[in-house]
Amino acid sequence: MTRDNEFNDLYANGMYAFVNENYENSIALFIQAAEIKPDNKLVFVSKGAAHLKLDRAEEALIDINRAIEIDENYAKAYHIRGLINEKIGNDDEALSDFTHAIDLDPEYGAAYNSRATLHAKMGNEDLATEDIMVIQSLTNIILETFANENNVWRSQQLRVEQMMETELER
Length: 170
Hints:
mainly alpha, Serine Threonine Protein Phosphatase 5, Tetratricopeptide repeat, 8 helices
């Protein structure tokens, strides 16, 4: 087995364990994967998320900060770091992280949602409302895109059905 295959297996098994809420096992597998690819941001974000699920904020911050060192433009890492900071009561740092995640990816709805929740908690109702409006706008765009793609698929399907009927009538 190649090192890449071994890494892929470890990471996939770690994600499987994570999804099945076996966070200790997922962390162990992510540690092994990180030994193979120490510069893979996904391993550290995933391990950090598992630590967060186990209420290990300090370990989670170490992992997320490592992911940010690897890729300072990875919006998801800032979002998760914001969640960690909020959990431990560092609301100003959390707000900064959520905002930075949004600056990096202006269509990152989860970061807007987290920021809106934090704004509301901090008594900034107007700012929370602004973020909620952005979430609604993003949701509408996603729904319109889905509807358009679905319409294209349906029109293609109708065309195929018409061609089949024409062929069968011959």
